[in-house]
Automatic annotation (TrEMBL):
Entry keyword annotation includes Cytoplasm: yes
Its job: Required for dimerization of active 70S ribosomes into 100S ribosomes in stationary phase; 100S ribosomes are translationally inactive and sometimes present during exponential growth.
Gene giving rise to this polypeptide: hpf
Any one cellular-component term (Gene Ontology): cytosolic small ribosomal subunit
Stored InterPro entries: HPF/YfiA_ribosome-assoc, HPF_long/plastid, RHF-like, RHF/RaiA, Ribosom_S30AE_C, Ribosom_S30AE_C_sf
GO biological process, one term: negative regulation of translational elongation
Record organism: Priestia endophytica
Keywords, sorted A to Z: Cytoplasm, Translation regulation
Subunit structure: Interacts with 100S ribosomes.
SUPFAM superfamilies, A to Z: Ribosome binding protein Y (YfiA homologue)
Name of this protein: Ribosome hibernation promoting factor
Length: 186
């Protein structure tokens, strides 16, 4: 795995870089084959704390987690724990999907010490139930109008057709209160 470690309002010292690489490399034990991807790590320092964001794009999914703490090293430990929980929680589903698509037999490795009861518990938690289906016409508009519509509806995201590109886009409210835009690649 290749590590892309960036700092915002913090200098990424060799000790900090080594600690991040050491901790994130522990995730490699969960994979059948070590992923040939880039782990993007953003370290940020704010007045109220230190934040780490980790994004690991893989072939069939994207692992992403972020954590905030007063201590950067503690934040790194917490984010790695969060990523491990994500992998354990979704391991069964991802492996099943991978086999169905004719890919590798397992995206995630079967771990030693996993009992059949743990696998059953994971499979029970593994099912997502769609409780409501909604359909609507996508009206052509710009992102400002979409944000206005989203706020008027009281939703945290809004799907619309971009009037300029005729592509389906999504605007969403970020945790920091600002807005994000998701658009398809050309």
């Amino acid at each position: 795995m290749i590590y892309n470690i960036r700092g915002e309002n913090i200098e990424v010292t060799p000790a900090l870089r080594e600690y991040v690489e050491k901790k994130i490399s522990k995730l490699e034990r969960y994979f059948e084959e070590v992923p040939n991807s880039e782990a993007n790590v953003n370290l940020k320092v704010y007045n109220d704390g230190q934040r780490i964001e980790v994004t690991i794009p893989l072939h069939s999914l994207v692992l992403r987690a972020e954590e905030t703490n007063d201590d950067m090293y503690a934040a790194i430990d917490l984010v790695v724990s969060k990523l491990e929980r994500q992998i354990r929680k979704h391991k069964t589903r991802v492996n099943r999907k991978s086999r169905e698509k004719g890919g590798a037999k397992y995206a995630f490795a079967e771990m030693e010490g996993t009992t059949s009861t743990t696998i059953l518990e994971e499979q029970e938690d593994d099912e997502f139930e769609v409780v409501r289906t909604k359909s609507f016409d996508l009206k052509p508009m710009d992102s400002e109008e979409a944000i206005l519509q989203m706020n008027m509806l009281g939703h945290s995201f809004f799907v619309y057709t971009n009037a300029e590109t005729d592509a389906t886009n999504v605007v969403y409210r970020r945790k920091d209160g600002r807005y994000g835009l998701i658009e398809p690649q050309a």
